User: Fold this.
Amino acid sequence: MPQLELVDLRANYGDVAVLERISFSVEKGEIISLIGPSGSGKSTLLRVLVGLLPPAAGSIRIDGQEIDYRNKLVLRQLRSRMAIVFQQFNLFQNMTVLANVTIAPIKVKGQAPAEAEAYARQLLDRVGLGNKLNAYPDQLSGGQQQRVAIARALALKPEIVLLDEVTSALDPELVNEVLDVIRLLAADGMTIFFVSHEMAFVREVSSKVIFMADGNVVESGTPAQIFDAPQQPRTQEFVSKILRH
Assistant:
C-alpha cells in the first residue's frame, strides 16, 4: 500500500483552476522532487497536501485512509504527520533558536518541556546548530535560519516532510549547507517532497522526479528518465533549456 496517494486531485484559487486531475502515489522513504516552470503548481500542490488550500475535488490518502480536509481534528492530526518548510524562514524573531524548535511539540502535542528540549537539542546538533541554542534569528545567517526552520518542522516527528524551494531565498554560498541537511534526511529514510530549481541536487537525491506545467503532472520517472530521456515534448523543452544554462 502506498504511503501517500493522490487521485484526480484538483484545486482552485477563486475561480481559477491551479491544479487539474493530479494523480500519483508515493512509497514510504521516497524522495519526490517537483520540478517545472514558475506557476506550474508545484508549491500549490504542497499547500494542498498540508491543508493550507482545500482541494476542490479528488482525494488524498495516507496509508489508505482518505483525508477529510474539512475536519479540523483530522487536519490537526495530519499536521503532526506531515510538516512543511517554506522558502521564507517564518521563525519567531522574539524567541531563541531552542524555543523556536520546542514550541510546537509543547503546544501542539503537549510534550513535557524537558522532553521537547532534549529532542530539539538532538535535532539542532544534527543540522549543525548545537552551538546556537540561545541565539535569536536575527543573529543567524539565512542558511542557519533555514536549518532552524527544518529542525522545527522535524520536532513534531512527521512521517512526510514538504520542502518548498527552501534554498531559493539564500545566497549561493549558503545553499550547500541546507542541501547537506536534506541529504541527512534522505539517508534516514524519511519521505520527502522537494520543490527546487537545484537540478544537480534533484538528480542526485531523488528517487522520483515529477515534472509539472500548467497545473498538471506532465511526466514522472527516475532522474535518469526525466533528465536524459524525457518522453513528453513539454518536458523535453524544459530540460533542454535548464541543461543549456
User: Anything to note?
Assistant: The domain at 4-71+92-244 is CATH 3.40.50.300 (Rossmann fold). Residues 82 and 160 are 5 Å apart (CA to CA). The longest helix spans residues 172-187.
